[in-house]
Amino acid sequence: MADADIIVVGAGLAGLVAAAEAADAGRSVVLVEQEGEQSLGGQAFWSLGGLFFVDSPEQRRMGIKDSRELAWQDWLGSAQFDREEDRWPRAWAEAYVDFAAGEKRAWLREMGHRIFPVVGWAERGDGRAEGHGNSVPRFHITWGTGPGVMAPFERRVRAHADGGRIRFAFRHRVDALVVEGGAAVGVRGQVLEPTDAERGRPTSRIAIGDFELRAQAVIITSGGIGGDHDLVRKVWPARLGPPPRTMVSGVPAHVDGRMLGITEAAGARVVNPDRMWHYVEGLRNWDPIWDNHGIRILPGPSSLWLDATGKRLPAPYFPGFDTLGTLRHLRQTGYDYSWFVLTQKIIKKEFALSGSEQNPDLTGKDIKLVLSRVRGGAPGPVEAFKRHGADFVVADNLTDLVAGMNKLADQDVPAIEEPALRSLVEARDREIDNAFTKDAQVTAIRGARNYRGDRLSRVATPHKLLDPKAGPLIAVRLHILSRKMLGGLESDLDGRCLRADGSPFPGLYAAGEVNGFGGGGMMGYNALEGTFLGGCLFSGRVAGRAAAQALG
Questions:
Q1: For the chain, what is the largest distance between any 2 Cα atoms, rounded to a whole number of angstroms?
Q2: How many whole angstroms separate alpha carbon 530 and alpha carbon 488?
Q3: What angle do CA 339, 278, 532 make, to 5 degrees?
Q4: CA–CA distance from 263 to each of 165, 177, 253, 515, 519 (Å)?
Q5: Predicted pLDDT at 383
Q6: What does the pLDDT read at residue 376?
Q7: Euclidean distance between CA atoms 177 and 513, whole angstroms
Q8: 71-88: pLDDT as tens digits
Q9: What Pfam family is a match for this entry (predicted)?
Q10: In sequence order, what DSSP letters do the residues of 350-401 get, joined into one string?
Q11: What is the value of pTM for the model shown?
């Protein structure tokens, strides 16, 4: 006897969307989650809430000329699809770009979702029109950040739960899929002891019983592997250089990839496991929520980026331009960290921190606090990191700055020589004297300020780093931050998991990060940002609707 029509494994954003869509179609759903109810929504809760839209009203109001054709050009240039396994990821990518250029915004808006009016320009690219990156700003921040993205779907799911159509199974850890006659018909595992740990905090793995649930279809929405650094290193691709010995973690430990292996063992196919997305601007959180908690700096383009030994990174590896290109370059240095060198004038205009908890103005929908970003100094959370963070050095002169940097350096890293860094900084500063320059980063800064969104709130007026009026000087030690996998369970355009021979796995669907955010890797080798949450929304919607429609 079935416990429900559909089982959804994982109560993150993709799981909430899939459950809500299936229940809207009249199906009964059990939503299974190994964490407690306080973790409903998963990683979406911690996110900045950025979404990828194409030719939106917000873009047009900011003077941005975007189009579906330009977005698809950028997507292909970034994804660089080159494998037989990219058949379905490419199909999903095209469907998603159509969605982002079409009904995505109206669909969300009808549920009460709203967008901050200034569009951000994330992942500005590798310097080629046909290459990686966003040709125009497309990063739309949700008013309310990650919780604001999650809220409409949580409301829908809880309304269905009140009506009896959705049932929650928190603290239920799935250990196996139930497969009969070649079809997925349920899940089994262990019930974990209750927890009152706050969202993101470590939870017990003590089992207090077993369970088995049955249904006509199972949708896997269990997330990625970023909380298990050993697993990240295991699939780390040679093209990105050697895996780092140390990383900070952008996700809690329960983001462990268990269901990926469990689903593969049941017969579903995993593709592109070597494609991943980790950041190079990670900070050790001075007030951590989970173990080894890292926070990403969302940088403007003006900070001088140095490797661990003080050498300047070459073009196009400027802050905010090419995440994986910069990661690949830094992994060739042999060291696990790098440096930003900047001024107080830069930090107050250009530094933002990723995460809902680091942006109380946007998360709390506090207009007065948002306006203080434009009128005043650096946002409060940024100043808190500058005061308390272990990775910040603040000094009134370059000599003291270098001494502080060397004090923070790893023992096996050669000391940064103050004369060499001074020569580098002074050479860069001389380029500021004219409106023209041969320094590609200075050109990029001036180009960015042609966009009024950047000029207003994101890019500092070009100035000399050694100008005392712009000080004090600041150095920030940057760690690699584990975050997302870009491959996963292969699926067709209905979200159905596929077997190794390409045939659909009856009764089995996938959505979200475990699905490579669609198809098994719709972003290819590179992401354009705003596509992770958007991929959860799109793939969760597809899988929930398709599974509901397929049932007899």
A1: 77
A2: 19
A3: 130
A4: 26, 7, 20, 11, 15
A5: 93
A6: 60
A7: 19
A8: 999 999 999 999 999 999
A9: FAD_binding_2
A10: H-EE-SGGG-HHHHTT-HHHHHHHHHSSS-HHHHHHHHH-TTEEEESSHHHH
A11: 0.96
